[in-house]
Design brief:
The protein is an alpha/beta fold and 578 residues long. Among the domains are: 3-87, Arginyl tRNA synthetase N-terminal domain (Gyrase A, domain 2); 165-255, no CATH class; 391-569, Isoleucyl-tRNA Synthetase, Domain 1 (Orthogonal Bundle), CATH 1.10.730.10. The chain has 21 helices and 13 strands. It starts with a helix and ends in a 9-residue tail after the last helix. A four-stranded antiparallel β-sheet has the order 1-2-4-3. The protein has helices at 3-17, 44-51, 55-65, 89-101, 133-148, 165-178, 183-186, 190-203, 207-219, 223-247, 263-275, 314-328, 343-355, 391-408, 415-435, 447-450, 458-475, 491-501, 503-513, 517-536, 546-569; strands spanning 28-30, 39-41, 72-78, 82-87, 114-118, 152-156, 279-282, 285-290, 301-306, 333-339, 364-370, 373-374, 443-444. The structure holds one RNA strand of 74 nucleotides.
RNA sequence: GGUUCCAUAGCUCAGCUGGAUAGAGCAACGCCCUUCUAAGGCGUGGGUCGAAGGUUCGAAUCCUUCUGGGACCA
């Protein structure tokens, strides 16, 4: 049940009934202030000119025309013509019961779309570093949200598994193996391996030439080079999988569709662009000139799909990927999570792909950019010595820091239990700190604030969940099968109830805009409202009659389920005790 | 040079399809534990929404210009 959608439909009908034109704007939103009801309709003012009536008169007519006798307790006209909608607690209670009895929390599936989500995409030549964190966890949260809403989601991990650097890497690997090395051992630290290969490439006689030869051989399908490359890639993927596992991210090996997967399509892609005249030869290269993105003098932007030497570029691979995703996979939407610096590239890519008919008018191509992770000094996040921070090491540090904090607390948990809690709290903290910020801008990474149990953090939310579980343990009842009508008497109960019903509004926005921070805000507000409710409305204390107690337990149960569901969509684990 | 993004409380951030007195958290300062996990709650103070114009009944939100910062393309 989406209350906002329901109210909007009712108001649209009322607009027609009072003679407003079809498709009049119908701004209906959650109220901005407690005194303004739960929802407000603000369309009366704008209609004033169209209908040539006073806004308050229009509001009055709308209030009389709108059919909300079950849903609303009160409609009031305020200020210049705002209509404040106060929901009926009895109706709200019924909706909560429906949600509580449903294993999807009353969330209806959306009309199913096929959505391709391209995220994470590490470069296999090196280890994953902090730069991959945002794409990986934001993409995963959006992916899970889309799946929860009933969409067919196809994950595409567009790994960087191709390019000239692999010539250098497989040459170095070849020599290691020839010297009786074991591939797994040689590649136990990709960073070291890369550095060693680079040193040889730069300074060892003949190495660079061999590396270049091997690139050519690899590209022409030489079996020995291919075998070395496969070994390298496979071990590198295993490194990534360890990080995914630690991060609690849903990507699997079968989701990998690396750059190399499109090799065989590149020539055909360029040929098609040439034959349709979108791409022309210029100084030996194959170029699309984009008049749509011309500068002030009218010079079109140049978008190169094949270099003068015949080499291909990211652009070519991305276009081939579009052909595959939109043609073969049948994507209605494609979401691509990369950093904001690639915005221009994707804008141009979409333009070319649409001209070429690789994307049709019913298909969307959505670049979902994100900003950089910065240190406390506002500069790009680096190690003390200025190097890139390995993602695996960052996550280990998070767990260590969480463990330290947990060990400082009084607790009846065993040492092993505390380790498990530290793992979930540490990883959750890092993910939540990132997910809770607006995707598109840079954000400042800070250990202390993300690991705090106060404020809008993962630990606070995990604690809120654990606290509710503690109530259930103490209640010692079969909570899941408790049969009790919910009654919403106290103001805190009503506020919590309305918030619980708005879960769907939050996740629908996450799905449509690819912005998980909306869900974070929602969960935090929900947890805060629960805490207020819990302070004001005793559950298990003496003197609470059974009906009230059970009703409040039901509210707590739906809160716990909603918290868990929301955190699960964000890829953050909950625990019964902490 | 061209394009584009950003600027909101001391700090970190929401809010931006135009709506009522711009919201949270942290930090500061109070208050609440013999009472369901105080890892909590309640409250106080804190703002020329970078600047100036414009559109509008109404602008943090839309438009223009400017200032400062970042990024991308050349």
């Amino acid at each position: 049940m989406n209350i906002q959608t329901l109210l909007l439909a009712k108001f649209k009908a009322a607009l027609i009934a009072i003679g407003a034109p079809e498709n009049s704007p119908a701004p209906l939103s959650r109220s901005t202030r407690a005194g303004f009801g739960h929802y407000q309709f603000n369309g009366a003012m704008a209609l004033s000119k169209v209908l040539n009536q006073k806004p308050r008169d229009i509001a009055q007519k709308l209030v009389e025309a709108v059919d909300l006798k079950d849903e609303a307790e009160k409609l009031e006209i305020a200020g210049p013509g705002f209509i404040n909608i106060y929901l009926n607690p009895l109706w709200l209670a019924q909706q909560l019961q429906v949600a509580n009895a449903d294993n999807r929390l009353g969330i209806e599936a959306e009309k199913q779309q096929t959505v391709v989500v391209d995220y994470s995409a590490p470069n296999l030549a090196k280890e994953m570093h902090v730069g991959h964190l945002r794409s990986t966890i934001i993409g995963d949260a959006v992916t899970k949200t889309l799946e929860f809403l009933g969409h067919k989601v196809i994950r595409q991990n567009h790994m960087g598994d191709w390019g000239t650097q692999f010539g250098m890497l497989i040459t170095h690997l070849n020599d290691k193996l020839a010297a009786d090395g074991v591939a797994e051992t040689a590649l136990s630290d990709l960073e070291d391996f890369y550095r060693a290969a680079k040193v040889r490439f730069d300074s060892e006689d003949g190495f660079a030439d061999r590396a270049r030869e091997n690139v050519v051989k690899l590209q022409s399908g030489d079996s020995e080079c291919l075998s070395l490359w496969k070994t390298f890639v496979s071990i590198s993927i295993a490194h990534s999988e360890q990080v995914y596992d630690k991060l609690n991210v849903s990507l699997k090996r079968s989701d990998i569709m690396g750059e190399s997967a499109y090799n065989k399509d590149l020539a055909a892609t360029v040929a098609e662009l040439k034959s349709s005249g979108i791409v022309v030869e210029s100084q030996g290269a194959q170029v699309a000139f984009l008049q749509e993105m011309a500068d002030k003098e009218g010079n079109p932007a140049a978008y190169i799909v094949q270099k003068s030497g015949g080499g291909y570029l990211y652009a070519t691979t991305d276009l081939a990927a579009i052909r595959y995703r939109n043609g073969v996979l049948g994507a209605d939407r494609t979401l691509i999570f990369t950093d904001v610096r690639q915005s221009l590239h994707f804008k141009q890519t979409e333009l070319v792909a649409r001209k070429a008919g690789f994307i049709n008018d019913n298909q969307s191509y959505e670049h979902c950019p994100f900003g950089m992770m910065l240190g406390s000094d506002g500069k790009p996040f680096k190690t003390r010595t200025g190097g890139t921070v390995k993602l695996a090491e960052l996550l280990d540090e998070a767990i260590e820091r969480a463990e330290e904090l947990i060990n400082k607390r009084e607790s009846d948990l065993t040492a092993e239990e505390r380790k498990v809690v530290a793992d979930k709290v540490g990883i959750g903290a890092v993910k939540y700190a990132d997910l809770s910020k607006n995707r598109t801008t840079d954000y400042i990474f800070n250990w202390d604030s993300m690991l705090s149990f106060e404020g809008n953090t993962a630990p606070y939310l995990q604690y809120a969940y654990a606290r509710i579980q503690s109530i259930f343990r103490k209640a010692d009842l079969d909570i899941e099968n408790l049969q009790q009508d919910i009654q919403l008497d106290a103001a805190q109960e009503q506020l919590l109830a309305v918030k619980l019903m708005q879960y769907i509004e939050a996740i629908e926005q996450v799905a449509s805009e690819a912005t998980p921070h909306v869900l974070c805000s929602y969960i935090y507000e929900l947890a805060s409202l629960f805490m207020s409710f819990y302070e004001a409305c005793p559950i298990l204390k003496e003197g609470i009659d059974e009906k009230t107690r059970n009703s409040r337990l039901m509210l707590a149960l739906l809160t716990a389920k909603t918290l868990q569901s929301g955190l699960d969509l964000l890829g953050i684990e909950t625990m019964k005790k902490m």
